[in-house]
Amino acid sequence: METVQTEHSPETGPQDKVRLAWADLLRVAAMLAVITIHLCGGWLGCTPYATGLWWLFNLLDSLARWAVPVFVLISGMFFLDPAKPLTVKDLFCKYLLRICTALAVWTVFYVCLNNWPGKSHLSLGWFVSCLRLVIHGSTYYHLWYLFMTIGLYLVTPVLRVFVRNAQKRELHYILALSILFASLLPSMLLLFPSQTVQTCLSRINVTLVMGYVGLYVTGYYLHAYPPSDRTRKWIYGLGLVCAAFTVLGTWLFSGRDGVANFNLYSYNSPNIVLMALALFLLVQRHGEGLGSRRWIARVSRLSLGVYLVHPFFLDMLFRFGYGPGSVMLPPPLLIPLQFAILLAGSLAASWCISKIPILNRYLA
To answer: CA-CA distance, 300 to 185, in Å (whole number)?
Structure first.
């Protein structure tokens, strides 16, 4: 197995100076998918239902939704590996400190950007009002991922003890609970509301497996216990079926409700989780050679920075008239151009930050 010798990546966890090339490749692919999600999301909400453009954006958005679950799977694979040294002190002083600093700085940046008064109205009072918004919980839509990551980091020491001592049956048990309570039942309630079921769930309140803990543990499990070829093929097939279901189901439920229904886009929904598992296993099996090039590792190191900064470039495009309603170019031509601008600008900005001492440790 080929590997790229580098320092460990803060986005993935300690790696003993060895990078898994396929994980770098998967992280780069997820980075591109996140840009696709946010770009298409800006168009999809204002495009008439079931038109040709609506179908295009629905297709692209649906097929990219695996991105966030894949990021969580990769993190769990590294952070929960008992063979990797990771003390509580390292976790708090290195990884949590980095994520918390990035969250604070980028929150202030985006709040100031959203409330920009123009050069002639800049003042200390304006900045103080922005800080007040931050203190009251105002943030930007994509920064939820950092909050979620902080939560996973906080429970990592406990989960590491669990996976180190657990047998496969205990791992199967916690994963089954997670599938049921964090994925399947919540998704069913979104599509087919039931007050009775909702009340029962709220009273049972199995918080241990809620959120993204199940995906986090699954990342470790798939790396520690690789599935058989037969199981892989089943998951690949289910992933394809779920991709088609996401596209068609979004159309069907939106038509049923008379308003846009994007519940199948939820990152924890079973269809998206299965898509993520299928891609994770596919790249794990076949991506090592493809991901062995050094530039993949370099771009992979910039992935967190790209995630944090790309909404700035997207916002600028929309503000200057290159978003929905633009008459500059027809959407089928404008979308690829927007994607290229977002990717190039975000990579350049992330690379510049990575070259600045101190900032490169905490902001990208």
So the answer is: 34
**Segments making up each domain of the chain, as ranges:** 3-362
Residue 343 token pair = 């990717």
**Which positions ≥6 away from 302 have C-beta within 8 Å?**
347, 350, 351, 354, 364
Structure tokens at 123: 């003042």
- The number of CA neighbours under 13 Å toward the Cβ of 14 is 17
Residue with tokens 């998951």: 235
Distance CA(313)–CA(345), nearest Å, equals: 7
pLDDT digits (tens, 9 = 90+) for 157-212: 999 999 999 999 999 999 999 999 999 999 999 999 999 999 999 899 888 899 99
pTM beyond 0.85: yes
